[in-house]
Amino acid sequence: MSQECNFSTSLLVGFLSGAFVGAAITLLYAPQSGKRFRRDINNKVQDFKEDAGELFSSAKKTACEVVNDGIAKAEHIVSEAKTAADELLTDANRMMSDAKGKVTHAIKTGK
User: Rounded to whole angstroms, how far apart are CA atoms 86 and 79?
Assistant: First the structure.
């Protein structure tokens, strides 16, 4: 009977300790009053909006810089390609003139 009493007492102490700890945790994590809770949520929403606005502005600025850099690089590449094409045309015209001259000279000397 003594063991039964010890077991019952231990069980009761454990149960009461668990209830006390549970009540303490419940009080610590209890929600705030409605007005205060809504105000806190509103503040968090405002903070989120400001952060999102800053991120959007930063992303927009970065995107504009990337686009402008891309345009500048594309213009440079087009300019280099145009210069190279002009040089090729000049070289082709010169080679054609040289070939015409040689053919004309060969025809004249052959006659």
Answer: 11
Tell me the helix, strand and coil percentages in the chain, rounded to 5.
Answer: 95, 0, 5
Residue 78 CA, chain-centre distance (Å), reads: 30
Give the span between the Cα atoms of 57 and 74, in whole angstroms: 25
Alpha-carbon distance values, 4 to 1, 9, 46, 49 (Å): 5, 9, 61, 63
- Domain coordinates of the chain in residue numbers? 31-110
C-alpha to C-alpha distance for 80 and 74, rounded to whole angstroms: 10
Mean residue pLDDT of the chain comes to 82
CA distances to 7, 17, 18, 24, 70 from 21, in Å:
21, 6, 5, 5, 64
Q: pLDDT digits over 49-97, tens only?
A: 888 888 888 888 888 988 999 999 999 999 999 999 999 999 999 999 9
The reply to whether the predicted model has a pTM over 0.70 is no
